[in-house]
Structure formats: structure tokens, C-alpha cells
């Protein structure tokens, strides 16, 4: 990846995997909040590729433990192709979601690209939830609670093999940060998989700095760094515009430190921004906070010392 790749903004306006309607409006809310302008302010070249097209949300109950599975497959197939195209063009894709099930398509493309390039992959999963449910333990059937499990090979074959033979990711390449809501059976699966989780208790006890230092250990110039940023990672006091708010998340300053430490590596190579739901927001406040943090991911810093 070049020092300053072209940014490809890829809109995926769907709430197909979510518990509530409204995340389909997320890409436009981020555009209204000035994501293009904020990235250009960091000296980056930005190409907004527009929105992907996929099936509408039929709003049906789960079938065999999955809700809207055919539609989720269709949307993730489109995301996989678009993110893969951006990476092959040596661009840096930013997926504007949409709900978090879309990370299956995004990260399948990233993992496929890393295998083809012979590069290591590190995934930072910024989220209130572990997203490691399966159809046998999910309380809802909503696929936005299953992307990490699917990427690790636990899910329907059409999703687990989207970028090649399953699994797309090894648990050892994933670091989850900010977790504070995990279903009981899901917790068992997370422990079984051996995921590295820096939950909110860890952050309370040791601080965001230590969590990020450990999450970034081993990242080097041969590492593709992917950030999957679920906006419900943030505390609802600063980010109310999500469908699944969980109190007790990172503060604004903790989130800024997280983003700045990622930026300090200079290795960010792909990004998801998901679960922004303007239907629950206050005058686009959450989108503006998200854009501010994304700007920090790309180099805006509060650093005053030399």
C-alpha cells in the first residue's frame, strides 16, 4: 500500500441484518456530516463511488435461525466485489454501512487480498458486541450479531466461503475492543475460539492506551490493518444514533486516543463504518462524532508536544 492511497467511499445502504430499521440511511448521514471533506482536509484524495444496490429489506421473521439470509448473502456479495475491486486498484476502501453483517463481505475481500499478496492481517473490531452468535444460539436470528462467527467459519456456507475456503479469518488475527454486551451462549463460543477481547472492564482497569498497545502488538510494515468500526462502540451519551445502544462505552477522549494510536502506526489499509442509524439520532450528532473520529484515524491529532 502506498503512503497516501486514494480513498474509495463505498456506500451500502441496507439494514438487512439489523434488529431495527434505519441503518440503511447511514451512508448518506456520513456524507451529510462531511466525511469526504474531512478526509480531504488530511491531504487525501477521495473518490466517492456511490451506493451499492441490493435487495430491499422484507422484514420477515427468522427461518432456520437466520433472518433475511438470501438478502444478506446478496448484499455481502456486492460488498465483497466492491471492496476487492478497490484493493486491486491499490485504493483504501471505506465501507459506509449499513449494518455490521456487511463486514462479512468486506473482510472476506480483505482476507482474500492479503492471502494473494502474502501479507499478514490484523483486524481491530471496535464494538459493544462480540458478534459471535450462530444460528443455534442467537436469540434473534439477526445476522448483524454473527459476522465474526461467519468470518471464522461458523455460519452458512455461502457466507463462510465468500472469499475462498472457510474460514476467512483466524481468530488469532482479531482484536475486539470496547465489548460490553455478550449473550451467554455467545460468550462460550468466544472463549472456545480464543478471541482476544479487550472489554470495557479491561479498559476501566488498565486504560485505553494499554488496550490499544496490546491490540497493536506485532503489527509491522508487512501487516494489512483493518478497522471495523461499529458506531455502538461509543458510549450512547456521545453517540445515541445506533439501534443497539449499550451504556458504559468509551468516552470521546478514550475513542480519540484509540483512533490516534491506530493512525500512529501508519498502517490502516481498510475500514468499515457501520450501524449508524439516523432514525435514532439527534440532528445528525452521531454521524458528526463518527466523522470526527474517522478524521483522527487518518491523522488529525490533538498532539501538541513535539
Describe what this molecule looks like in 3D.
- The chain has 306 residues and is of the alpha/beta class.
- The chain has a single domain, classed as Arginase, Chain A (3-Layer(aba) Sandwich).
- The chain has helices at 26-32, 35-40, 69-88, 103-117, 147-151, 157-160, 184-193, 200-215, 252-265, 285-297, and strands at 7-12, 46-51, 92-97, 120-126, 174-177, 196-198, 223-230, 268-274.
- It has an 8-stranded parallel sheet with strand order 2-1-3-8-7-4-5-6, sandwiched between helices.
- Helix 9 links the parallel strand 7 (223-230) and strand 8.
- Helix 8 (200-215) packs parallel to helix 9 and helix 9 packs parallel to helix 10 (285-297).
- The chain is globular, with a radius of gyration of 17 Å.
List SSEs in N-to-C order: EHHEHEHEHHEHEHEHEH
Question: Strand fraction band?
Answer: 15-25%
Give the helix/strand class. alpha/beta
Number of helices: 10
State the CATH topology.
Answer: Arginase, Chain A
Mean pLDDT: 96
Radius of gyration: 17 Å
Overall morphology: globular
* CATH class category name: Alpha Beta
Q: Name the poorly predicted regions.
A: none
Overall strand count? 8
Termini gap: 28 Å
- The CATH homologous superfamily is called Ureohydrolase domain
